Amino acid sequence: MLKLYDSTLSGNAYKVRLFLALLDIEYRKIPVDLRAGENREAEFLARNPRGQIPVLEDGETVVWDSQAILLYLARRYGGEAWLPLDPAPMARVAQWLAVSENELLFGLARARAVKKFGRAFDLKACQEYGIGGLKVLDEQLENQDWLAAGRPTIADVACYPYVALAPEGEIPLGGWTNVLGWIRRVQSLPGYVGMEGIADQG
Amino acid sequence: MLKLYDSTLSGNAYKVRLFLALLDIEYRKIPVDLRAGENREAEFLARNPRGQIPVLEDGETVVWDSQAILLYLARRYGGEAWLPLDPAPMARVAQWLAVSENELLFGLARARAVKKFGRAFDLKACQEYGIGGLKVLDEQLENQDWLAAGRPTIADVACYPYVALAPEGEIPLGGWTNVLGWIRRVQSLPGYVGMEGIADQG
After folding, report:
1. Where are the domains of chain B?
2. Domain A2-77: assigned CATH number
3. Best residue in A97, A134, A136 to probe B by mutation, most B CBs within 10 Å?
């Protein structure tokens, strides 16, 4: 059975939990105590030299980094449903993975980390950077239901968590109508699971 | 012919210039004057809503974001040479793309942006974050020539620019022996092109 090294409050780990649920794949969660520094112990660093969760183990294959895990799972278990392989559609997915790693992670998620975990980032700068990401998402979702294709892909799975968690970083979602509609669509997907801090937009 | 919306001093644009050179693909550079704000004009925003270079045009296909462009070019023109499609090797490439988007971009590249362009990031925090990335790269390159496979992949192309430019952010590379060997190997690839600020390690 797949093993996921996990932490309940991590939006990056939640990306993987959400995708495993959408793929209807059973797995075992192995909680890693970040406050106790378990992620900095030699045993964990042997799995992931960056000392971060999530890490996925699938038999002999060990994958670290949430986006790499999404790509792995999409390729291994999802056919082309969640990750098209033709150059142009694949690039469209990759564009939104990039937004997820940039404005959403270093904007929205860092703002949340300041408010929720007391991290020492510049709150205002993170909020502004994150809001720039929301703006681009909202424009993209003006005329389409999903970010990168006519169906949900790993781009939606990657972007959803820190967008839905943005209010925890004091970034309200109320004005972003298209984003809110997209959040509702994600929450309606068969198999969807939420996490603490994500409001039900149903 | 391919068109690349470009800026000479951008390490992200250089990722694409380097990969196009390695693939031996002709293209036309279209310089975008960032200081004059050309990237914020409506005509440019229609190509890339984030207002950033690089942007690639290949006939009707428009791709923004450097990593998305690398994926696009690898899929469209490189077969599986630069991007393996099997789940585990593809995930290994994606892991190093993630390091490139995280520690290298928000560490090394931001430190360089402070020193070279006067940007208002926390220099010390960026340097520390970037050095964490160099450490992980150096360990990975201890026993292998390339980051993600037995040959160069887009992982190497994505990571190389801001590593090689790190000294411009006052992050010396002298102590990172394995990284320096890898830089030499990248610089020896057929078709390699450099950019201003990258020292020849030959």
Report:
1. 2-77, 87-187
2. 3.40.30.10
3. A97
**How far apart are the C-alpha atoms of A110 and A119, rounded to whole Å?**
8
Tell whether A99 is within 8 A of chain B (Cβ): yes
What gap in Å lies between CA B88 and CA B147, rounded to an integer? 14
Looking at domain A87-187, its CATH class is: mainly alpha
Q: Which residues of A135-167 are buried (b: 16+ CB within 10 A; e: fewer)?
A: ebbbebbeeeebbbbeebbbbbbbbbbbbbbbb
Average pLDDT, chain B: 97
Distance CA A45, CA A57 (A): 14
Is pLDDT of A202 > 80?
A: no
Q: Interface pTM (ipTM) of the complex? A: 0.96
Q: Is the CB of residue A94 less than 8 Å away from at least one CB of chain B?
A: yes
For A100-144, the pLDDT digits (tens) are 999 999 999 999 999 999 999 999 999 999 999 999 999 999 999
Residues of A in contact with B128 (CB under 8 A): none
H-state helical runs in chain A? 11-22, 42-47, 66-77, 87-99, 110-117, 123-140, 154-164, 177-187
User: What letter does residue A121 receive in the DSSP assignment?
Assistant: S
Concatenated DSSP letters for B117-167? H---S-HHHHHHHHHHHHHHHHHHTTS-SSSSSSS--HHHHHHHHHHHTGG
Q: Report pLDDT for A104.
A: 97
Calculate the dihedral angle through the C-alpha atoms of A105, B96, B166, B134, rounding to the nearest 10 degrees: 100
Describe the strand order of the beta sheet including B27-31 as a list of residue ranges. Answer: B27-31, B2-6, B55-58, B61-64
Which two structure tokens, joined as six digits, stand for A86?
């033709």
Considering the entire predicted model, what is its pTM?
0.97
Given the DSSP bridges, would you call strands A27-31 and A2-6 parallel, antiparallel or unpaired?
parallel
CB B115 within 8 A of CB B169: yes
The residue length of chain B stands at 202
Which residue among B68, B91, B105 places its CB closest to the CB of A91?
B68
The token pair that represents B149 in the structure block: 């496979």
